[in-house]
């Protein structure tokens, strides 16, 4: 696969979800694979939340979380890495909004707006979804320069507890590169 790197590293936020198989193990493996990519560093992980399904209701509860990444990849190349990881972890697309071993959505890349055949940024449905916003709020600092913090707070105020999102666990993932530095 061709991935293009820009010379400057920038921050991106992604959402993860899983509702088939060992949900926690699959999410941890997805984080490990992202961090193992030479152009991606996982900076922060949210807590894990158990969430009631939204959109297609006849399916198991999800575990959802969010990550802050630093990357030198452009957004389309980052998405391509994410899709490869989803496929490698057994993701199948059968029912729209249906059950999945893992889902990785690119939410936000420094406030960039993009509309290409394969990528829309910011993610078009992120501000309607408590299962995205509540984990994301764990890891976006108040001083995030492109205004993401304020957007999340405003959107959460509108959603106001309409979805079932329950704290489940803290994230146990630690970067292997950080461990080997110590
Ligand atoms: N910001 C984005 N993040 C992830 N995928 C995106 C984004 N914008 C467009 N896409 C496209 O959406 C396609 C379908 O994604 P996917 O099957 O994961 O959708 P979904 O998770 O079922 O629904 P949703 O997009 O509402 O979360 C991807 O192959 C990708 O090309
Ligand atoms: N609770 C929850 N519901 C969903 C989720 C998800 O990750 N969590 N993903 C969907 C498709 O993107 C559709 N519905």
Automatic annotation (TrEMBL):
NCBIfam families: folK
Enzyme Commission designation: 2.7.6.3
Record key words, sorted: ATP-binding, Folate biosynthesis, Kinase, Nucleotide-binding, Transferase
Catalytic activity reported: 6-hydroxymethyl-7,8-dihydropterin + ATP = (7,8-dihydropterin-6-yl)methyl diphosphate + AMP + H(+)
One GO molecular-function entry: 2-amino-4-hydroxy-6-hydroxymethyldihydropteridine diphosphokinase activity
Pathway given in the UniProt record: Cofactor biosynthesis; tetrahydrofolate biosynthesis; 2-amino-4-hydroxy-6-hydroxymethyl-7,8-dihydropteridine diphosphate from 7,8-dihydroneopterin triphosphate: step 4/4
Enzyme class: transferase
Keyword Nucleotide-binding tagged: yes
Family annotation (InterPro entries): Hppk, Hppk_sf
Record bears the keyword Transferase: yes
Domain 7,8-dihydro-6-hydroxymethylpterin-pyrophosphokinase intervals: 96-107
UniProt xrefs under PROSITE patterns: HPPK (PS00794)
Protein name: 2-amino-4-hydroxy-6-hydroxymethyldihydropteridine diphosphokinase
SUPFAM superfamilies noted in UniProt: 6-hydroxymethyl-7,8-dihydropterin pyrophosphokinase, HPPK
């Amino acid at each position: 696969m061709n991935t293009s790197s820009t010379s400057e590293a920038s921050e991106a936020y992604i959402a993860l979800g899983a509702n088939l198989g060992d949900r926690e193990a699959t999410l941890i493996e997805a984080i490990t694979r992202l961090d193992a990519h030479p152009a991606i560093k996982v900076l922060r992980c949210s807590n894990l939340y158990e969430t009631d399904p939204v959109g297609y209701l006849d399916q198991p509860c999800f575990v959802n979380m969010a990550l802050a990444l630093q990357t030198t990849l452009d957004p389309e190349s980052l998405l391509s890495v994410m899709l490869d990881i989803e496929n490698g972890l057994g993701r199948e697309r059968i029912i729209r909004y249906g059950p999945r071993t893992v889902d990785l959505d690119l939410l936000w890349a420094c406030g960039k707006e993009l509309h290409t055949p394969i990528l829309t940024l910011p993610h078009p449905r992120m501000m309607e979804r408590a299962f995205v916003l509540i984990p994301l709020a764990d890891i976006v600092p108040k001083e995030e320069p492109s205004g993401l913090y304020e957007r999340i707070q405003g959107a959460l105020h509108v959603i106001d507890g309409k979805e079932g999102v329950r704290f489940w666990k803290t994230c146990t993932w630690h970067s292997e590169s950080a461990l080997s530095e110590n």
